[in-house]
Write a structure and sequence with these properties.
alpha/beta, Aspartate Aminotransferase, domain 1, 8-stranded mixed β-sheet, 11 helices, 45% helix, binds pyridoxal-5'-phosphate
Length: 341
């Protein structure tokens, strides 16, 4: 690899904990920030872990959308945070609920995935992005904008990131996992420089130096101009899969409630209240369809009617077959339940 020939002596050595400088520069340019405002680490989840250490003490409240990414909820809880959910609507978080929680609970941060959210696929409207920045400044909490799916837009027009609305209260997280390779473990954060320095200190105390080979390869890939064409290719592959899932849901699970995403990896489906998804999951597994437990995405005790349906790793035929099986199971179970009266 050219990077190993040209800069091999750099990427094979320990390196400052904030990450490989040429990659920090490349990312900074892409997001209109200074390289010193960028930290690159071993995946964005590791940065979430560092941020939770830095910004919270055990017992502090952090807010997430309800539902939200299950692994992020786990990380926040493991640090001792009290995780509360802000209900998610089809155009993003419930503004009134966020304001009430911000006033009452004085959260340290609100973790939000504004583009093609994991697990629902919902995108936060521009009006809500703008309101979020106002609320964060008024009630003094950080916004953790986690945006790894942003480039995977298949329909509609792009909205500005919350980070680009120029607030000192917004931290931007993203990753090469969805647009290049999850195994490389390269994720990054952008935020105020003093905070980046504090995070770099935690990173240094944790691992001295992040994985330079992964960061060197990511940089070389970007420098050669390969990232844009790869994203275009992924969009072409994933768009028909989203369409296939949406039409299969209309056909086989007409009773379910969901919002059609404009991009990303997932559609989040709410089944009718009489369904029991625990039983459905067990029976679906027997029929070769593996579903994740919807309750993991909800910080409070709901989520038993929720299914996260990932569509990127399957062909349209596999997606249709899977949804047809779930639909026939759901119908049989609904008949069983009404039969029991
Ligand atoms: C919202 C969100 N954030 C972060 C990640 C993980 O990113 P990384 O591989 O950079 O740790 C994922 C992966 O599923 C995700 O959905």
């Amino acid at each position: 690899m050219a990077i190993l020939e040209r800069e091999g002596s750099v990427v094979l050595q320990y390196h400052p904990a904030a990450g490989f400088y040429p990659l920090r520069e490349w990312l900074a340019q892409r997001h209109d920030a200074a390289p010193e405002a960028v930290l690159v680490s071993n995946g964005s989840l590791q940065i979430e872990e560092f941020l939770t250490q830095l910004l919270t003490s055990p017992g502090d409240v952090v807010l997430v959308e309800r539902p939200s990414y299950d692994r992020a909820i786990t990380i926040f809880r493991r640090a001792g945070a009290r995780v509360l959910g802000v209900p998610l609507e089809s155009d993003g978080f419930d503004v009134g609920a966020l304001e009430n929680l911000a006033k009452r609970e004085k959260p340290k941060f609100f973790y939000i995935i504004p583009d093609f959210q994991n697990p629902t696929g919902v995108t936060t409207s521009l009006a809500k992005r703008e309101r979020l920045v106002e609320l964060a400044e008024r009630y003094d909490f950080w916004v953790l904008e986690d945006n790894p799916y942003r480039d995977l837009r298949y329909f509609g027009g792009e909205l500005p990131t919350v980070f680009s609305l120029h607030s000192e209260k917004v931290l931007y997280l993203s990753s090469f996992s969805k647009v290049l390779s999850p195994g490389m473990r390269v994720g990054y954060l952008m935020g105020p420089e003093p905070l980046v320095q504090q995070l770099a200190k935690i990173a240094e105390d944790t691992y001295v130096s992040p994985n330079m080979i992964g960061q060197g390869v990511a940089y070389e890939y970007c420098r050669r101009g390969w990232l844009g064409p790869n994203i275009d290719r992924l969009r072409e592959v994933y768009r028909p899969r989203l369409e296939g899932l949406a039409s299969a849901l209309e056909e086989y699970l007409a009773e379910a409630r969901w919002t059609k995403p404009e991009g990303g990896f997932f559609i989040g489906v709410y089944l009718p209240p009489e369904m029991d998804t625990s039983l459905l999951r067990i029976r679906a597994r027997d029929m070769g369809v593996v579903l994740s437990d919807g309750r993991g995405f909800f910080p409070e005790s709901d989520g038993h009617l929720f299914l996260r349906l990932p569509f990127c790793a399957l062909s349209v035929e596999e997606i249709r077959e899977g949804i047809a099986r779930i639909g026939s199971l759901a119908n049989t179970m609904a008949i069983d339940i009404s039969g029991r009266g």
